[in-house]
Amino acid sequence: MKESMMAESSSVEVLVHNIDEPDWLLRAGDFARRVLERLEYHSWDFSILFCDDAHIRELNSTYRNKDSATDVLSFPQIDDPSEIPESGTFFAGDIVISLDTLAENAAYFSVSEEEELKRLIIHGILHLGGWDHSDNSPEQEMLRLQERILAELSKEKIY
Question: What global pTM score does this model have?
Answer without folding.
Answer: 0.93
